[in-house]
C-alpha cells in the first residue's frame, strides 16, 4: 500500500505539471525552445550549442554518425555540424539528451540496467521508425526518428523517480500503463513535444496494427515490435512478431543505424 501511495503521489505531481527534471538539462531545454521558433537563426543556435560543452560534443558526434554522414567526410566544427544535421534533427538530439539525463542520475544498479536497456530499445525503435517511414508508411522520416527518440520519455522519468523510492516499480501489475500515460503526457509537454507526435505516442498503449501500416502511430508501433532490444516495460503483445512487413535488408539497415545513433547520442 505504501508503494501505491508513493506511485499515486508521483502521478498526481505529474498531472499538476510538477515534474522533477535534472538541472543539467536546462541548457538543452533552452536550445529546444529556440529551435521550436520558426524565426530561429543559425547564429543563435550555434551560440547556444557552443555554450554547453557536452551539447557541442554531441552535436559534432551526431553529424559524424553514419545515419547523417552519408559521404564519410568528417566534421570537426559546431557550425558545420549544425548545418549538416539540420534544425529538426538537432531538436531530436536535444530531446534525446533530456531523456538520457534521467537515466544518468540513477544510482540503483538494477534500475540503471533497465535504463540502459530502455535507451537501447529507444535507439533501435527510432532507427527502425525512420526506415519504416521512408520505405513503408509514407510518413516523414525525420518526424518518425524524433518520435522514436522521445516515445519512452515517461518510462525514463519513472525509472529516475523509482531510484528515489526503492521498490516503486516492483510488480507494477495493471496500473503501470494508464499511470505512465499521464506521466508521459506531462513530460512531453514540458519538453515542448509537438501535439501530433505526443498524441501518436500516447495512442500506442493498447493499440493494434492492421496491415498495411500507415501514419506515425503505426510507424512507431511497428518499430517498437520489431526492435532488436525490447523495452523493459514491454508486454507480450509488444514483443509479437510481425513477419513480412519489413524485409531483412531494411532490418539490417535499421540495426546499423541504431548502433550509430545510440553511440552518437550517448551522454
UniProtKB/TrEMBL annotation:
This is HDOD domain-containing protein. It comes from the Bacteria. PROSITE patterns: HDOD. Residues 21-207 form the HDOD domain. Gene3D superfamilies: Hypothetical protein af1432. It comes from Duganella flavida. InterPro entries: HDOD, RNase_Y/CdgJ.
Amino acid at each position: 500500500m505504501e508503494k501505491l501511495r508513493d506511485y499515486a503521489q508521483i502521478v498526481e505531481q505529474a498531472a499538476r505539471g510538477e515534474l522533477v527534471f535534472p538541472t543539467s538539462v536546462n541548457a538543452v531545454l533552452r536550445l529546444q525552445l529556440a529551435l521550436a521558433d520558426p524565426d530561429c537563426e543559425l547564429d543563435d543556435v550555434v551560440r547556444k550549442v557552443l555554450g554547453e560543452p557536452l551539447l557541442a560534443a554531441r552535436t559534432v558526434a551526431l553529424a559524424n554518425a553514419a545515419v547523417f554522414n552519408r559521404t564519410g567526410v568528417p566534421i570537426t566544427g559546431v557550425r558545420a555540424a549544425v548545418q549538416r544535421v539540420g534544425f529538426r534533427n538537432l531538436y531530436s538530439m536535444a530531446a534525446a539528451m533530456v531523456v538520457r539525463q534521467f537515466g544518468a542520475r540513477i544510482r540503483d544498479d538494477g534500475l540503471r540496467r533497465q535504463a540502459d536497456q530502455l535507451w537501447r530499445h529507444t535507439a533501435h525503435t527510432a532507427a527502425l521508425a525512420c526506415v519504416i517511414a521512408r520505405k513503408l508508411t509514407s510518413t516523414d522520416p525525420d518526424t518518425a526518428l524524433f518520435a522514436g527518440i522521445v516515445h519512452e520519455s515517461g518510462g525514463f522519468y519513472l525509472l529516475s523517480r523509482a531510484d528515489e523510492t526503492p521498490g516503486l516499480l516492483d510488480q507494477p501489475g495493471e496500473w503501470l500503463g494508464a499511470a505512465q500515460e499521464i506521466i508521459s503526457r506531462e513530460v512531453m509537454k514540458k519538453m515542448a513535444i509537438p501535439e501530433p507526435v505526443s498524441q501518436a505516442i500516447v495512442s500506442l498503449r493498447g493499440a493494434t496494427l492492421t496491415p498495411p501500416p500507415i501514419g506515425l502511430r503505426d510507424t512507431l508501433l511497428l518499430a517498437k515490435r520489431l526492435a532488436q532490444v525490447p523495452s523493459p516495460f514491454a508486454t507480450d503483445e509488444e514483443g509479437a512478431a510481425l513477419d513480412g512487413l519489413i524485409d531483412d535488408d531494411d532490418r539490417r539497415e535499421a540495426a546499423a543505424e541504431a548502433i550509430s545513433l545510440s553511440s552518437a547520442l550517448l551522454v
